[in-house]
Amino acid sequence: MPTVAPDKILKQLADLWVSTARQGDGDGGEGVLRACAMTLVVLTEESEDVSTLGETLAALMPEHPARAIVIRLRGAGERDLAERVYAQCWKPFGQRRQICCEQVEIIASDAALADVPSVVLPLAVADLPVVFWCRSPRVVQVPEFRELTALATRIIVDSGAFPDPVAALQWLDEAVKRPRPLMADLAWTRLTRWRETLSQVFENRQNLARLAGTVQVLIGDTGAVTTRAFYFGAWIKDGLESLRATVPTIRIVRSPMPFIELATDGFKVRLEREDERLITTIDNVAHCTSLPLPTDYLLLREELGIMRRDPVFEKTLSSATRVAYATE
User: Fold this and answer.
1) What are the Cα distances from residue 56, in Å, to 52, 181, 182?
2) Which of 287, 288, 285 is nearest to 277 (CA)?
3) Tell me, what's the pLDDT at 273?
4) CA dihedral 312, 313, 314, 317 (to 10 degrees)
5) Cα 143–chain centre separation
6) Which regions of the chain are under pLDDT 70?
7) How many other CB atoms sit within 10 Å of the CB of residue 315?
8) What are the two backbone dihedrals, phi and then psi, of residue 155, each rounded to the nearest 5 degrees?
9) Is residue 286 within 8 Å of 279, Cβ to Cβ?
10) In terms of Cα–Cα distance, which of 240, 184, 182 is closest to 212?
């Protein structure tokens, strides 16, 4: 079986920096700056588009420079491990000096997953956060996942990609109760602008005062009901119940475009996406704001800037799990 030795990879990284520095000094360049603020480990299936993932990582590096370790999962098959090393480099606008980050790619079959932690641990940059971005819903269920992510400061998943949203929320709810690592969910991150906009609506005290009594909450989700809808419903429910004067009822329906609607007698607020716009309608008066499609780059850029526990997310996750079970 092919083996991957951490000391061999570290030597390849050292040689890479020597050759990159020589290239940076040539042709009138001003050298190369080595940048690293974390170790970013990406777990992804080998079948996923390599170029798209590479573009996402390259876009992240200027703001969140990292030693990126991409573990591509080959699935069932013979015990197999392979690796390669390269650098991501860019020149800030108006400068001649390159800034470079390291990238290691490891290909592993499921049968070799038990060997991966012993490879990744020595590659993590000392005294810096270690973030795992798990793009494969399948891998969180394998026995080796806990050992593989044991050194993680933070684990980022996308529960929207899980086949069973209720099981995904239950797994996450159990995971956040452990002291470490910290957990993040891109399905929750997708709601940031929606939550900000809805909060701004009710910063107006007149709008807030009109929420007394029973509030009908209608959430439109595209296709099958996802964790996003459960998160949004739970977050709104918790917020309305904190007012004590309101009694919320939550209903999730299928819709061509995502939307959220709060209604009481004589008062209605609706937020709805149309392409890359968020349309907010209050009592039939609408206005639009920009709402870019939530790409992996935009979502990761937001999450990589957070290295602390998020109590709002954790509380909403617990509530969303209960909402999901109630709708089954």
Assistant:
1) 6, 24, 22
2) 288
3) 93
4) 120
5) 22
6) 1-4, 17, 20-33, 77-78, 80, 90-98, 327-328
7) 14
8) -120, 130
9) yes
10) 240
Distance of alpha carbon 64 from the chain centroid = 14
Residues in the chain: 328
* Tokens 């209608």, located at residue: 218
CB 261 within 8 Å of CB 217: yes
Q: How far apart are CA 90 and CA 55, in angstroms?
A: 13
Ramachandran angles phi, psi of 100, nearest 5°: -130, 145
133/183 Cα distance (integer angstroms)? 10
Distance CA 104, CA 122 (A): 13
Please identify which residue in the block is written with the tokens 């993040």: 184
Place of tokens 């080959």: 74
pLDDT tens digit sequence for 296-320: 999 999 999 988 899 999 999 999 9
Angle 225-227-229 from CA coordinates, rounded to 5°: 65
- Asked if residue 189 lies in contact with residue 305, where contact means CB atoms within 8 angstroms, the answer is no
Q: Global pTM?
A: 0.88
Residue 82 φ then ψ, to 5°: -150, 160
Token pair of 50 as six digits: 């390599």
Reading the block at residue 176, the tokens are 């956040």
In three-state form (DSSP H/G/I as H, E/B as E, the rest C), the secondary structure along the chain is CCCCCHHHHHHHHHHHHHHHHHHHHCCCCCCEEECCCEEEEEEEECCCCHHHHHHHHHHHCCCCCEEEEEEEEEECCCCCEEEEEEEEEECCCCCCCEEEEEEEEEEEEHHHHHHHHHHHHHHCCCCCCEEEEECCCCHHHCCHHHHHCCCCCEEEECHHHCCCHHHHHHHHHHHHCCCCCEEEEHHHHCCHHHHHHHHHHCCCHHHHHCCCEEEEEEEEECCCCCHHHHHHHHHHHHHHHHHCCEEEEEEEEECCCCEEEEEECCEEEEEEEECCEEEEEECCEEEEEECCCCCHHHHHHHHCCCCCCCHHHHHHHHHHHHHHHHHC
Q: Return the HEC string of 117-176.
A: HHHHHHHCCCCCCEEEEECCCCHHHCCHHHHHCCCCCEEEECHHHCCCHHHHHHHHHHHH
